[in-house]
Automatic annotation (TrEMBL):
It comes from the Bacteria. Transmembrane segments: none annotated. GO terms for cellular component: cytosol. PROSITE patterns: HELICASE_ATP_BIND_1, HELICASE_CTER. It comes from Faecalibacterium gallinarum. GO terms for molecular function: ATP binding; DNA binding; hydrolase activity. InterPro entries: Helicase/UvrB_N (IPR006935), Helicase_ATP-bd (IPR014001), Helicase_C-like (IPR001650), Helicase_Restrict-Modif_Enz (IPR050742), P-loop_NTPase (IPR027417). This is DEAD/DEAH box helicase. Residues 160-307 form the Helicase ATP-binding domain. SMART domains: DEXDc (SM00487), HELICc (SM00490). Residues 361-507 form the Helicase C-terminal domain.
């Protein structure tokens, strides 16, 4: 996809992020993960153009040109392969939406409207994963298994929860720290028939192997694809296979259920299965960090039994300590445009693809690294090839590797690296996920990125434990940037303001204390003896991160939704300095996103007498508005009656249906010889066309509801929608009350009109 270019020269990916930011706010674009890796049903590596998690569901977004999915314009194999990719996403339980590059260029408002329809007016986005490296499976001997301390603590916590009569829990442990082993040991201790649910065949197979090794006395069966071993004492099944065959099980067949990758559990398929069975205990497993917006997963699993994040994983010895050396370049990124999560590709290329920076990377390796196995993360295939070529010219065994080279050649290069025959891998896109070599001792972060996910993902490739590996050394190539387009680094990622060359960024508390003691005495730690750094040097690092700052604030877009005034009023108040934002983020010369603290919002609401609106009171305010409806014309109750009559289950109604209702309502009065409306109304005059009626509806009755964020108009789709947080909470009785109020208001209005 990155090869597509819009007319402005930015990539299709950049254009989509820009439209997404305009729709939901720039701070929300941080939840968009581009080139998200997954496996299709044949276990081939694939990448979704974008993935985002919304209200507990994964949503894949594909950006295509017109030819990509037209069987007349592409080869049959390519066409079928694209179908397989999409079908595999659906098989994983993802929603899949697609837009064309030309559509985004020529119909941006349509794309933004469709995004609101598909993802909602009030989406609940959340981070998906923390991308810790997957530990390779080891042969387990159940009789001699020595549990780690965090696993013992988790088992004790689960037992205590059951003693308190709790029947469901969540286990959050970082990837690679033995979640499945902990779950198997708890199920074994519980001793009842067990069902293990996962969303891929690979996870089912891994769980089956672990159960058989750790619980040899239990029969363990697979329930996936054509294999249906449903009578085993322990059944390891794919969620899809179990959901499609629920009638083959009784609700009380299992006393213990384990849900792997539990952040999927709010999806319909999982809900179907979990609501069917009646186990004595249910355990969810996840590596996803808990967040303030983690409502869905905790709504299901109630309590977190035990938690282990990336820093804790290092502290307990599950991942290696990490050190850092910062290499300053003379490259200036301050003028590079960005769209909240990534740099403009054309701008970035012009800045970093320069001989001086490339040579600095090579010189750094020759000066510091001394033949340690190294992965250099580059910005593109061209960049990786350039660096590898320069290293090769200097006599270093280096290779560029990317998704563009043949799979067989790629496997050969990686195998040679693991054997130590190749010292340096220059990678642009391949090693972010799905591969790592535990013997890797050094990472070069030579690709500037504003993506926390991508940076962490790359970091994870070197954090695996290996014999003789004291720590991982990370080289951050630090380019000059502004506060707002600053790339990620180790110190920004872990919010460390003080930098000492080669010092521990991640380590156990004992290691950090011991190292600090050496610094205090003016001594260099043993781990740095082989590195030509002066351990006593230090500098202060600017760790300002506008996305983290904005995450706790309210965007101007959200400000409008939180108060009972019009968008134009807020814009004017900001322009005139009557509303002063707490944070202003310049995205480009002509685009600035503004953010307000919650207390600032409340201060201005009190100052200007505005009513604060949120999802908790929006329905009540809507009902109050209906009950107190002022009637300069009859339009508002007529609009509400049309909405109630024609809305679908999501509160959406075609504007054309509303126009038809208005026409029929007023023409019925005219036919019956009743007063139609005030003399200046188009309905009283008659002879109007549908377009005039539509303009009237949108300018008069609708506008007030829109200003209060109760109704929304999706212009390009011709749809009016009751706000989601209102519609889903309205009971049948409340809808009947609205209908009754509308009839009463109309009767009162026409009585007054007739008396005049």
């Amino acid at each position: 996809m990155s090869t597509y270019r819009s007319a402005s020269g930015s990539s299709a990916e950049d254009l989509f992020i820009e439209l997404f930011s305009d729709t939901f706010g720039a701070e929300k674009a941080g939840y968009l993960y581009s080139q998200y890796p997954f496996s299709d049903i044949y276990q081939n590596s694939r990448f979704a153009d974008f993935l985002i998690e919304n209200s507990g569901r994964k949503v894949a977004i594909e950006i295509d040109d017109e030819a990509s999915h037209n069987p007349k314009l592409v080869s049959q194999n390519k066409f079928y392969d694209d179908l397989l990719k999409q079908n595999s996403m659906i098989y994983l339980g993802w929603d899949v939406y697609r837009w064309a590059v030309r559509q985004m260029q020529q119909q941006p408002e349509t794309v933004k409207d469709e995004l609101r329809v598909f993802l909602g007016q009030h989406p609940s986005f959340r981070e998906i994963e923390d991308y810790l490296p997957t530990q390779r499976g080891k042969s387990l001997d159940g009789s001699k298994l020595e549990l780690k301390e965090h696993q013992k603590q988790a088992l004790a916590a689960l037992e205590e929860m059951r003693c308190n009569f709790e029947t469901i829990a969540l286990l959050y442990h970082a990837t690679g720290t033995g979640k499945t082993v902990t779950a198997v040991m708890d199920a074994k201790r519980f001793g009842k028939r067990t069902l293990f649910l996962a969303h891929t065949v690979e996870l089912v197979d891994q769980a089956t192997k672990t159960f058989r090794e750790l619980w040899p006395r239990a029969t363990v069966g697979r329930y996936v694809e054509s294999m249906k071993q449903g009578n085993a004492f322990v059944v390891c099944g794919s969620i899809q296979s179990v959901a499609l065959n629920l009638e083959r099980f009784k609700p009380d067949d299992f006393g213990y259920i384990v849900v792997d990758e539990a952040h999927h559990a709010s999806a319909d398929t999982y809900q179907k299965v979990l609501s069917y069975f009646t186990p004595e205990f249910t355990l969810g497993l996840t590596a996803t960090p808990e967040r303030a917006d983690d409502k869905n997963i905790l709504d299901i699993f109630k309590n977190t039994a035990h938690k282990l994040d990336i820093q804790t994983a290092v502290e307990i010895g599950e991942l290696v300590p990490v050190r850092c050396i910062r290499i300053h370049t003379n490259i200036d990124l301050t003028k590079v445009r960005f769209n909240s999560v990534q740099y403009n590709i054309r701008d970035l290329e012009s800045k970093i693809y320069v001989p001086e920076r490339n040579q600095l990377i090579v010189d750094t390796w020759l000066q510091y690294v001394k033949d340690k196995r190294t992965v250099i993360f580059c910005a593109s295939v061209k960049h990786a090839q350039e660096i590898a070529g320069r290293l090769h010219d200097a006599g270093v065994a280096a290779e560029a590797v990317s998704g563009e080279i043949k799979a067989s050649d790629r496997r050969e290069v990686l195998a040679r690296f693991e054997k130590g025959e190749i010292k340096v891998l220059c990678a642009c896109d391949l090693l972010n996920e799905g591969w790592d070599c535990p013997a890797t001792e050094v990472l070069f972060m030579a690709r500037p990125t504003m993506s926390k996910v991508l940076y962490t993902q790359q970091l994870g490739r070197g954090m695996r434990l290996a014999p003789g590996k004291e720590s991982l050394m990370v080289f951050d190539f630090v380019d000059n940037a502004s506060q707002y387009n600053m790339p990620y680094s180790m110190h920004r990622l872990f919010r460390l303001k003080e930098y000492k060359p080669g010092a521990l960024v991640l380590g156990t508390k004992g290691q950090k204390a011991a190292e600090q003691g050496l610094y205090d005495k003016g001594e260099r730690p043993d781990a740095l003896i082989d590195w030509p750094v002066d351990a006593l040097d230090y500098e202060l690092v600017d760790i300002f991160n506008w996305q983290e700052e904005a995450a706790g604030m309210i965007s101007q877009m959200e400000f409008v939704r939180r108060v009972d005034v019009q968008t134009e009023t807020i814009e004017r108040y900001v322009r005139d300095g009557l509303l002063v934002p707490d944070l202003a983020v310049p995205m480009s010369e002509h685009r600035t996103f503004k953010y307000f603290k919650e207390e600032t919002l409340q201060k201005y609401a009190q100052q200007y007498g505005w009513t604060l609106i949120d999802d908790s009171n929006r329905k009540d305010l809507f009902l109050d508005m209906v009950r107190q409806m002022d009637m300069s014309y009859s339009y508002k109750p007529v609009l509400l009656k049309a909405v109630l009559l024609f809305s679908d289950d999501k509160g959406r109604v075609k504007l054309s249906d509303i126009v038809t209702y208005f026409r029929e309502f007023y023409e019925a009065r005219r036919t019956a010889g009743l007063v139609v409306e005030k003399a200046n109304s188009i309905y009283a005059k008659g002879g109007y066309i549908d377009a005039q009626a539509q303009r009237n509806i949108l300018s008069n009755p609708f506008k007030r509801f829109e200003d209060m964020q109760m109704l929304h108009h999706t212009k390009t789709l011709g749809v009016i929608q009751v706000d989601e947080s209102v519609w889903k909470k309205l009971t049948r009785e409340e809808k009947q009350e609205i209908e009754r109020i509308c009839d009463e208001k109309l009767e009162q209005y026409y009585s007054r009109l007739t008396e005049k």
